[in-house]
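2 proteins. here.
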Amino acid sequence: MTPLDGARTIRFTFDGRELEVAPGTTVAGALLASDVRTWRRSRRAGAARGLFCGIGTCFDCLVDVNDEVAVRACVRTLRDGDAVRTSASLGRVAPAARPGASSAAGRAAGARAETAEPAAVDLAVVGAGPAGMAAALAAGAAGVRVALVDSSERLGGQIHRQPLVDAVEGRADGVHADAAGPTGPAGPRLAARYHLLAEHGQVRLLLGRTVWALAESDRGFTLHLHGPTGASVLAARALVVATGATELALPFPGWELTGVTTAGAAQALVKSQNLSVGRRVLLAGSGPFLLPVAASLVRAGAHVVGVVEARRRRDLAPLVGALARHPSKLTEAVGYAALLARHGVPLRFGRMVVRCEGDGSVSHAVVATVDEDWRRRSRRVERIAVDAVCCSFGFVPRLELARQLGLDDRRGVAGEAAGSAHDATMASSVPGVFVAGELTGIAGSEVAELEGALAGRAATAYLLGGTQGGEGVPPAQGGSGHVALDRARRFAEGLERRYRVESGWVERLAPATIVCRCEDVTWAEVLAAIAGGARTAREVRGLTRCGMGYCQGRTCGPVLQLAMSAATGAELGAVGDLHSRSVAFPLPLGDLAGPESLGQGPAGCKEGPVATEPLREGTPRAPS
């Protein structure tokens, strides 16, 4: 694994062992580059854990850094002199790094945070991916005071990650010095947008701040934030919610071994740090995301031993016609396939990983052929030597903040929540709230950017006195925005139908297979809860603790819903989901309950990793 900048290094220790790595590397990247795979033990079973999601969602990669405990290694940028230790937190949440704290991270992060913390704006945009950036620019260009908030310290979201090398030098604008982060056909245009946002007088960038709760107030909306210096509150007259999506990884025996990650984790390491997740890597799952990830790993120097796609080749044949009607998509797909062919990477269709083997860390992936319903066709298997397996079965909208505000869901064919509902202007069911991007349905960055621009214009019209639902919304430049958006959405809908998750995948689950990674809940425990009368995901959670850990169901919630539906024959809508929570993100209890920090008292919450007090006016309410 090759660091981003080999000319300079920073020194750190891991469990007392002195190591060095390139600047701009996350703790997880630094440990992987130093051939360290394991740095945490799971809370209940004490199983070895390391990197999994790579974007701060799953909390598998917790470490202790200096005086901070339970730090997410995949999002914490390593700094010179840091002392990293195997996490022994076993459930504790990291304290906020206050100004003047002994850690270098706390001092540097605090210095950045103190410079830009407005108390109130006209429009708050939550999420700084393609949709959020487009919304902020559209509204800011019309003179609206905008705050663009994101939990990452960098603009671009997951799809357009930027290199992190300048993060250690204290840049506060979230823009890489040479704007080299965005790649592909949209790269130059997005790079220009990054600089526009950084220099825009109407747009304030609040990066490295997590929105853990949203609530309506007399003057509009209140955003409860948590960042490097602790808790803060932001008031806004209107909102654009563009919270993106979480990657779907379907479990199988051995998926909890270190070295088994999501495909997104591999992509994030390459994009932000030029690091490969392993030396011999297998891509597995279903969906078009597998190809660009495999291509990026090849470019990073990894030996990609194969791409295993659950869909059969003949099932995907109709996509050729759809791609032909979208030349840029066809060119992109052909480019990936050609690169993989030149490097001898086999594309295997109609196959799935049925288990991974290894002593703590993955050493072999076992692959079997499957039919159109993803059921095994024979007992014959192929055993492939690997040190990393990257899995992906698509993406699931992140609905927790939308649910806090009571936004209506857009329902899929099985009654499941497929995103937040909206009208033609991206207005939600709640006045003053607009939605955009993957939150509305998984459709890719092109759709997200177009929706974001539309939502930004609609929010501007609303703030200037227009009604929610279309009146006074300025048209897209050139009048072609809606046409392009409709065309891109139709293409995305075709992909969604073609790459739907089939029910036969549950046959991979053995009784001892881990379903909930945080709480080590097994498939046998889930089946026992169902046998005992549980009919919804929330009922199973109450009986097994599945979804009650650090990630609060973001990783296991969609898995549990799909598995229960497949096991019982119930539709996804009847099973329900775990998206609803009144504290959307784990945070220190003192920051949740401290009235001097929030100014309004604690949020109401009956579950999760924190204790609470009774509800007070102006705070988010727990879902019924």
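next one coming up
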Amino acid sequence: MRSLPLALRTMLIAFVPVCAALTVSFFAIRSAVSDLVKAGLRQNLRENQEAVETVRVGAEARCQKLIASLKDHPAMRAATGALADGEDATPQAVNAAEKQLSILNRTLQFDALILSSAGRKSLAGVQRLPEGEKPLKGAFLPGVLSGGSRELADLERGVYEFVTVPIEIGSEPVAYLSAGQKFDARTYAGAGHAVLLRDGVIAQSGVPAVENGTLEKELAAKCANTGLDCEVGAGGDTFLVTNIAGDGKSRYRVLNLQSMDRASQRFLHEVLKVFTVVAVATLALVFVLSLLGSQSVAKPLAGLLSTLRHAQETGQLRGGLQTRWGTAEVDQLAEAFNQAAESIAGKQKELDKAYHEFVESMARTLDARDPYTAGHSLRVAHYSRAVGAELGLPERDLEVIETGARLHDIGKIGIPDAVLQKAGRLTDDEFKIIKMHPQIGKRMLKRVGGFEAYLPVIEYHHENHDGTGYPYGMRGKDIPLSARIVHVADAYDAMTSHRTYRKAMPHEKALQILRRCGGTQFDPEVVHAFAKLFPADKSPINEKDLPIQMFA
């Protein structure tokens, strides 16, 4: 995180929490909407089931009326009359009754039609199958579902639902007529899925892709012995279970299962689609605002850091930061930094002025001790800067070379006057003393703050390119470039200046010596640059062309 750019970090700090909040809100809203939808769906399913049940009761009542109207039908009278002996009817009477029931059912088109005794024992019946009608043989006992006329019974090839009405003579029932349709769980519950339980075990299920064993366990755990609504989970779906017929005490029980997840899926999809659009728009807005906000903070700080890095590299602190960023604290920081930079710049100018005055005073002190070399350091500094510029050095290096050249002989302050101001040639011992001035100069300025950059010029300006110089015998590129430049400028000025022991050489002769000694005493590249600046047909700069002092 710390390695990321400041603007990106600032944006992420503002953007990520909003994304997290929207994500949490998304799941919270999704859960709340899902619960709300399921609650509404549950209510709608209950109302729908009540409406279906009302229709079913009405249809049952109409069916009862239809069947009740048959008791005076000639075929019905013939069937009842054939079974006049009731439960002890003869086979001939049963066959006759079955024949009359078959005739009657060809019009009614029921799946089964049964005539039973007053004791509810099956006497005769017919069953309509795909291959045709056939008599029902043997007794059967319907399972009462609701305590009324609706009954279920196991017959050949399935379970049938019956509506039963009494056949009365006077006020006493002498027989019962039951008309039935084959029970089909796949179509029984209309929009839902019907499940038929026989003694608590699933006999038929209209629920697709759900194993009966799994569904039985859920129903037994959550919906046993209750006629109220319940919820079960099976096949990765949640079902609302309503009781259509029967209860926990009945042998048969019919349940209606409605998938709440599938019913709510479309509505949830629309809600989440709207939420997604809103969330994307919100994130886009937050992203833009976070980006703008991060820029308002990061950009001035980046400018501040850039300025500080520049100050670290150059040693100069500059201000000029923009102070209108739209953030009060950032504006105040930029303004305070600008003020601090201006104050430091003012103090730096004062320090530079004092520093330059100190350098100038030391150079004048040297010139005062050796009147014959007065102006020498000033000329060497001028030549050295010109050569450095010809070599393409940056301004900062040119300033170091110029000031170093101004101070290159400062060590001569420590040389005795008898040696320094001697009119004739020096003896070997006296020359050894003179050769100590580079090291003396280094020791003088080493502990003075701000002079570190000039020490190479002061210490190495008498080192020769071939290693024959002093004080260390350095050679070639091991000698700092600034010292090599000052060495050439120093030698040229020494040759073209008057001394007590000789006259000044002409410019052309001094230039010839420099060229001849290029590669041995002097760096040939530096000599080439010097000769290019001051060719043989061009007179060197006159003393009057130089400034009175280097640091005015």
